[in-house]
């Protein structure tokens, strides 16, 4: 389980920013009892690992691999007393063929926006159950990622994964998150919310990929309906490539989704980060081009920049800056958006 507190600071609110910092620091004491933390891109950067090392889904997110579970118990979590450390732990695996997992995120959101009522709210951000069945361990996997809260229960991901194909390829078929950009857990981040590529949106189709040496490569072809029924013959294509190093990584993603009437969206993103030790910086810059009979062509730019600091074992401080320009054309009337969220996450196993 992950417990987090976040604060929202509008542009220019330095005193509010300091107040949020104090608030988050105070709240952290209450978060110290959270058992486990969910994965984020900064963790992969901090350790110099690919997403597939710790996650069943090759492109990241969701249930952990056996290595990922051990990492969560031994490296990710805050220290416990000797008696708790010696207690038996269930890692989620029943036998070589079946394993389960879960993810619960509870948060306290606090917002202080000028000329508006101060708001604070406890929310269940995410409650998930995972099921992994390996009839041929290391070769064939059937996977389910089921959301139980908030809102109605739904299968976020359900797919078959076939590994060990010629050339080191893998094949995924079913419903899954598209391999685009950074696998940021926060679905409200502008770069995820505006682009439509988030862990709240999955689609049905196939994905082919490989991880030769330091590279992570993935190509998917899906309905392009965000999980809804298909009513035409057009499909969404997504291509993503990343070079992963011990202290840095860089990548790019491209997506084309065209409807039968000629409308659609083209998306391109550059992403990467520097990490190692206590500090990790990462970011993503995306360009989105929408087209249609009513809007013509509309271009948007979205930016995410993030700095993570490991304050102590099981305690991460994240400061992010987000920016959205709905149309870079200076002649257009528009309103840019900026967000500076501050998030502390405490974890313990």
List the keywords:
349 residues, mainly beta
Structure write-up:
- The chain is mostly beta strands and 349 residues long.
- It has a single domain (2-346), classed as Porin (Beta Barrel).
- It has 6 helices and 16 strands.
- It has a 15-stranded mixed β-barrel.
- The radius of gyration is 20 Å and the shape is globular.
Give a concise summary.
This protein has one domain: Beta Barrel (Porin), CATH 2.40.160. 14% of the residues lie in helices and 48% in strands.
Strand order of the largest sheet: 1-2-3-4-5-6-7-8-9-10-11-12-13-14-16
Largest sheet: 15 strands, mixed, barrel
Computed over alpha carbons, the radius of gyration is 20 Å
Count of extended strands: 16
Which helices and strands occur, and which strands form pairs?
Blueprint: E1 2-8, H1 14-31, H2 41-47, H3 51-54, H4 66-76, H5 82-86, E2 98-111, E3 119-136, E4 140-149, E5 154-165, E6 169-176, H6 190-193, E7 203-210, E8 215-222, E9 236-244, E10 248-258, E11 264-274, E12 279-292, E13 296-312, E14 315-325, E15 337-339, E16 342-346
Parallel strand pairs: 1-2
Antiparallel strand pairs: 1-16, 2-3, 3-4, 4-5, 5-6, 6-7, 7-8, 8-9, 9-10, 10-11, 11-12, 12-13, 13-14, 14-15, 14-16
């Amino acid at each position: 389980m992950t417990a987090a507190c976040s604060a929202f600071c509008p542009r220019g609110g330095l005193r509010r920013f300091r107040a949020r910092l104090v608030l988050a620091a105070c709240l952290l004491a209450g978060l110290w009892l959270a058992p486990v933390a969910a994965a984020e891109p900064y963790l992969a950067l901090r350790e110099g690992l690919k997403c597939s090392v710790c996650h069943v889904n090759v492109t990241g997110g969701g249930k952990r691999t056996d290595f990922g579970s051990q990492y969560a118990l031994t490296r990710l979590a805050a220290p416990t007393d000797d008696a708790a450390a010696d207690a038996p732990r269930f890692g989620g695996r029943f036998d070589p063929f079946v394993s389960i997992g879960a993810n619960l995120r509870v948060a306290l959101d606090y917002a202080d926006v000028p000329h508006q009522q101060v708001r604070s709210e406890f929310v269940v951000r995410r409650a998930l159950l995972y099921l992994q069945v390996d009839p041929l361990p290391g070769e064939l996997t059937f996977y389910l990622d089921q959301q139980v809260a908030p809102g109605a229960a739904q299968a976020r991901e359900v797919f078959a994964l076939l590994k060990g194909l010629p050339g080191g390829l893998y094949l995924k078929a079913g419903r899954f998150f598209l391999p685009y950009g950074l696998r940021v857990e926060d679905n409200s981040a502008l770069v995820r919310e505006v682009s439509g590529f988030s862990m709240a949106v999955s689609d049905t189709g196939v994905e082919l990929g490989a991880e030769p040496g330091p590279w992570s490569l993935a190509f998917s072809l899906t309905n392009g309906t965000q999980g809804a029924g298909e009513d035409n013959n057009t499909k969404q294509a997504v291509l993503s490539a990343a070079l992963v190093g011990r202290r840095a990584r860089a990548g790019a993603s491209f997506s084309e989704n065209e409807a039968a009437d000629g409308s659609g969206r083209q998306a391109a993103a550059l992403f990467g980060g520097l990490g190692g030790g206590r500090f990790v910086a990462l970011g993503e810059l995306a360009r989105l081009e929408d087209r249609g009979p009513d809007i013509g062509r509309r271009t948007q730019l979205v930016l995410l920049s993030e700095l993570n600091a490991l304050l102590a074992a099981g305690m991460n401080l994240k400061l992010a800056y987000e920016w959205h320009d709905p149309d870079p054309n200076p002649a257009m009337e528009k309103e840019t958006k900026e967000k500076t969220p501050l998030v502390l996450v405490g974890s313990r196993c």
